What does this fold into?
Amino acid sequence: MYLHLWCLGLRISEVCTLKGNAYYWQGEDAWIQVYQIKMKNYKRIPIPEGLYKIMQVYIRRHNIGPDDYLFTNQRGGSYSSATFQKQMKKFCQERGIDGGDYLFKSHDYRHTVATLFYDNGVSLQSVRDYLGHKHEEMTQQYVDYVPMKIAKESEEFFKNQGDSGLAASLRKGGKHG
It folds into this structure.
């Protein structure tokens, strides 16, 4: 479950409702089909080959049929997102991982994936489509693009200024900076 959050940025509710037929290979790419509960529709996204292979082994070992939930509760229904979060926090606590409550916030991975996509040149529209947002304003809240863009532009500015004037005194490691 964790790998789906971490490397795909799926909503926890989307991970909890994945079924055995969610993974497939098309051409040279592995894909996952996810039901977006909020949007009430399906989306398909490419996934790393490693995740595809891991999940194929998991499906075989647990005899999961195409219409069976991958992650089930004791009654065979879909796994609860609240239970998953509780167990992850307990896992952190049992292993002495400080700040387990803070460290594990499943929705934060969506922000991380969105920011990584954007920082690597993926358009805001494409990030919006990937996350399944209706409005671009929502995606902008997920992409921490302003601080990174400012830092990048600032670094570029000071690199091009050489040792002249104000730039030299403000630059990191400068005699006044």
